[in-house]
Design brief:
Blueprint lengths: L29 H13 L2 E9 L5 E7 L15 E2 L3 H15 L9 H4 L5 E2 L2 E2 L5 H6 L15 H8 L6 H9 L15 H15 L3 H10 L24 E3 L6 E3 L15 E2 L1 H12 L6 H7 L3 E2 L5 E2 L4 E4 L5 E4 L2 E3 L2 E7 L6 E9 L4 H20 L2
Antiparallel strand pairs: 1-2, 1-15, 3-8, 4-5, 6-7, 9-10, 10-11, 11-12, 13-14, 14-15
Helix pairs in contact: 1-11, 2-7, 2-8, 2-9, 2-10, 6-7
């Protein structure tokens, strides 16, 4: 997710996601992956964990840097972290399953399921569809822009605040629409908060319960959690560090109340579980064929990528493309990549990305892009 407080990390456009077992990945030897991850860490990350899975199902995890700047303990290879906006892919999968079951339609207006929620200030829930929510074409403004607090002081003051989904939506509706529904594209965490509310309206269960029932348990994602107010991370984990301005000091942002993220980014997991999920999603294990086709049907976006429903598609240097979503939150960046057939993937989690300038951050992004490109282009 895009965290409500300004940060250097949000400027970092990376690209990665994965799983691991024990044999050598074809085309990307473990020693070379370790070398590349070490180079990434030296460019400005406190700690990195990365996990590759090849088309043959073989793979492993490597780490670099430290999990705690005070103790110097190493980064755990199976460490928990906040996956942020990767949560959106879980929520989109649940919605698409409900579509496949006939419980709702992608082109249903939000008003049908949540009457009266989206009204006023130029907003009309009858004009916004479920598809618009998942595709970032709803025109709903970003609630983060009007959350209280900004920067280090704002984070510290509000880090344990509790938010209800309706509160987050109301904050967004205090601003006029970004555009008429379906006429443009703009990333909106608000849309996914509303999507989570739609899930609850249709099923009678929270989006958290449905993610656990439909995805976490069937895929045996034993290290994945959908927290409510719990500000802690499961052990083991690397601590999160946020640089609030270029060249500034890092502050520990490991703990905060995840209700600020809700269905837009509250899940915690590991690279192994995130990879298992994305490989299952692209591999056709979770959705019926019609909904699988909708998942990867893309529209052009203002970030230069093409976005489907809870995924984006990015081209490779060798031709073809991979899918990802990724996420940013205070002190943690997660990115993922999975092949269109779900067989090959890479996952990375970064704790404490920092630099003295935008050029530093751009070079960090370019280094990570080279890693993900090699994952899919080397055979």
């Amino acid at each position: 997710m895009r965290f409500p407080y300004k940060s250097v990390a949000v400027a970092l456009s990376l690209s990665l996601t994965a799983t691991a077992q024990a044999a050598e990945p074809v085309g990307y030897p473990r020693a070379e992956l370790q070398r590349d991850v070490d180079a990434l860490q030296r460019r400005g990350v406190v700690g990195v964990q990365a996990r590759v899975v090849t088309g043959r199902g073989a793979g492993w995890a490597v780490t670099s840097g430290v999990a705690d700047v005070r103790t110097g303990r190493p980064v755990p290879a199976q460490g928990h972290y906040r996956i942020a906006s990767n949560t959106k892919s879980f929520v989109a999968a649940v919605v698409l399953q409900l579509v496949g079951e006939g419980a709702l339609g992608l082109d249903d207006p939000v008003e049908r399921h949540l009457p009266g929620l989206i009204r006023g200030n130029g907003h009309d829930g009858a004009a916004i569809t479920v598809r618009h929510l998942l595709q970032h074409t709803s025109g709903l403004p970003e609630y983060h822009a009007v959350l209280p607090g900004e920067g280090r002081a704002g984070f510290e003051r509000h880090r344990f605040d509790h938010y209800e989904p309706g509160q987050l939506v109301a904050l967004a509706l205090s601003r006029p629409p970004d555009f008429a529904p379906g006429t443009d594209w703009r990333y909106s965490n608000t849309g996914y908060v509303v999507a989570g509310m739609v899930v609850e309206a249709v099923t009678g269960n929270s989006w958290r319960t449905e993610v656990e029932r439909r995805i976490i348990r069937p895929l045996r994602l034993t290290d994945t959690r959908v927290p409510a107010d719990d500000h802690r991370l499961p052990h083991p984990h690397a601590r999160a560090y946020q640089q609030w301005e270029f060249g500034g000091e890092l502050s520990d942002t490991t703990e905060f109340n995840p209700t600020v993220s809700d269905a837009a980014g509250a899940i915690t997991s590991t690279t192994r579980d995130v990879s298992r999920f994305f490989r299952a999603l692209l591999g056709g294990e979770l959705l019926k064929p019609a909904q699988q086709a909708e998942l990867v049907r893309t529209v052009p976006a203002d970030d230069g990528l093409e976005h489907g429903l809870g995924l984006y598609r990015k081209p490779l240097s060798c031709g073809g493309f991979y899918y990802d979503h990724g996420g940013n939150t205070a002190g943690v960046i997660s990115r993922g990549g999975v092949s269109p057939d779900g067989r090959r993937s890479i996952a990375m989690a970064f704790t404490g990305a920092h630099g003295d300038s935008r050029d530093d951050i751009a070079e960090l992004a370019a280094t990570s892009d080279r890693i993900v490109d090699r994952t899919f282009c080397d055979r």
